[in-house]
C-alpha cells in the first residue's frame, strides 16, 4: 500500500539544465511605494528553495508574480521558460500551488474532490491516480468523508493533495505544515524530499518555521527591504556571518564549553593536546534562526 511518503514517478523532463525559475531585477511598485526593488534568483530542476523574510518584505507579492496572478512593474521573469504574465492553461497545468487554505468545499467527498481536480489535467498531462494520491497524503481512511468532516490536520493534507494532483514540475508551498502534528510534519518533509529527488519537482516554499526551512531547503533566500539579502544553504549563510560555534567536551569528568569561529581548527588543536582524554565531544553551529536574525540585524543596521 502506498504511504504518505511515497510518490508516483514520471518521465524525465526534456528541458535539460534550463532553470525552472529565472528572476532578474524584479520590481513591484504600489503607488509611490516600492515593495520589490530588484529581486534576482534562479532555481534548478529538483531544487528546494525556502523564501524567508519578515512580514511585509514582499514574499507574497513575489510568489503571486511567479504564479502569474499579479503583474510586475519591471524586471525579467521566466517560469518554466515562460513569462508568467503570458502563461496559458497548458503552462499553468505544470504548476502546483498549496495555499494556506483553500476555499470551502465542505460538501464534497475527499476522493470525489481530488478526482474532480485531476480531471482538469487530463487534456494536458497525466494527473496523479486518485487512489494513489489519497494514500500518499494519508487520507485513505477518510476518502469517502465530506471535506467538512475532516480535522484541521486532515484538511491540510487535502490542501497538499490538491496542490500536487497534476504531478507539477514546479510546486509553490505557502506555510505547508500549518496544523500538522509532529508525525505528520515528518512524513510531509519526506514527501517533499521524494518529490524533489524522484520526480525532479522544483519547490519554492515560504514558512515562518525556520527549523522546517533548514530541514527542507537546498537553498535559503532571505527577502528584506525589497531585495534578496542572502542566498545560500543554511550552512553557507552561517559561515558567511562568521557566527561562533560552540565546542563542548568532557575531560577528567569535567565539562567544558568554548566558543570559536573555526570549530575544525579548535577541535584539531584540542585532540593534539589531550588526545583520548577527550570524551563526549559536541560541536554546535549557529542555527538558521540565529543566522537569519543576524542577517536581518546587519541589513537593518546598514539601511539606517
From TrEMBL:
It comes from Amycolatopsis endophytica. Keywords: Antibiotic resistance, ATP-binding, Coiled coil, Nucleotide-binding, Transport. GO terms for cellular component: plasma membrane. GO terms for biological process: response to antibiotic. GO terms for molecular function: ATP binding; ATP hydrolysis activity. SUPFAM superfamilies: P-loop containing nucleoside triphosphate hydrolases. InterPro entries: AAA+_ATPase, ABC_transporter-like_ATP-bd, ABC_transporter-like_CS, ABC_transporter_ATP-binding, P-loop_NTPase. It holds the Pfam family ABC_tran. It is found in: Cell membrane. This is ABC-2 type transport system ATP-binding protein. The keyword Transferase does not apply. Residues 271-298 form a coiled coil.
Amino acid at each position: 500500500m502506498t504511504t504518505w511518503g511515497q510518490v508516483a514517478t514520471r518521465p524525465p523532463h526534456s528541458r535539460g539544465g534550463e532553470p525552472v525559475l529565472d528572476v532578474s531585477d524584479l520590481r513591484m511598485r504600489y503607488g509611490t511605494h516600492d515593495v520589490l526593488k530588484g529581486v534576482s534568483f534562479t532555481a534548478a530542476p529538483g531544487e528546494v528553495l525556502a523564501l524567508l523574510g519578515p512580514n511585509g518584505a514582499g514574499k507574497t507579492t513575489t510568489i503571486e508574480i511567479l504564479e502569474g496572478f499579479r503583474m510586475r512593474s519591471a524586471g525579467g521573469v521566466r517560469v518554466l521558460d515562460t513569462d508568467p504574465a503570458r502563461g496559458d492553461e497548458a503552462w499553468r497545468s505544470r504548476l502546483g500551488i498549496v495555499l494556506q487554505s483553500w476555499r470551502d468545499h465542505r460538501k464534497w467527498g475527499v476522493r470525489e474532490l481530488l478526482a474532480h481536480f485531476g480531471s482538469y489535467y487530463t487534456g494536458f498531462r497525466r494527473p496523479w491516480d486518485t487512489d494513489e494520491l489519497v494514500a500518499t497524503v494519508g487520507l485513505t481512511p477518510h476518502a469517502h468523508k465530506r471535506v467538512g468532516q475532516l480535522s484541521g490536520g486532515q484538511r491540510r493534507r487535502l490542501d497538499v493533495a490538491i496542490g500536487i494532483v497534476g504531478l507539477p514540475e514546479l510546486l509553490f508551498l505557502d506555510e505547508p505544515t500549518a496544523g500538522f502534528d509532529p508525525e505528520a510534519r515528518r512524513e510531509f518533509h519526506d514527501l517533499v524530499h521524494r518529490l524533489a529527488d524522484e520526480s525532479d519537482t522544483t519547490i519554492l516554499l515560504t514558512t515562518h518555521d525556520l527549523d522546517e526551512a533548514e530541514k527542507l531547503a537546498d537553498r535559503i533566500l532571505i527577502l528584506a527591504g525589497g531585495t534578496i539579502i542572502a542566498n545560500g544553504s543554511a550552512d553557507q549563510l552561517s559561515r558567511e556571518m562568521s557566527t561562533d560555534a560552540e565546542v563542548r567536551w568532557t575531560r577528567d569528568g569535567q565539562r567544558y564549553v568554548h566558543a570559536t569561529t573555526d570549530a575544525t581548527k579548535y577541535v584539531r588543536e584540542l585532540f593534539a593536546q589531550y588526545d583520548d582524554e577527550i570524551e563526549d565531544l559536541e560541536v554546535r553551529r549557529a542555527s538558521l534562526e540565529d543566522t537569519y536574525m543576524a542577517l536581518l540585524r546587519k541589513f537593518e543596521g546598514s539601511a539606517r
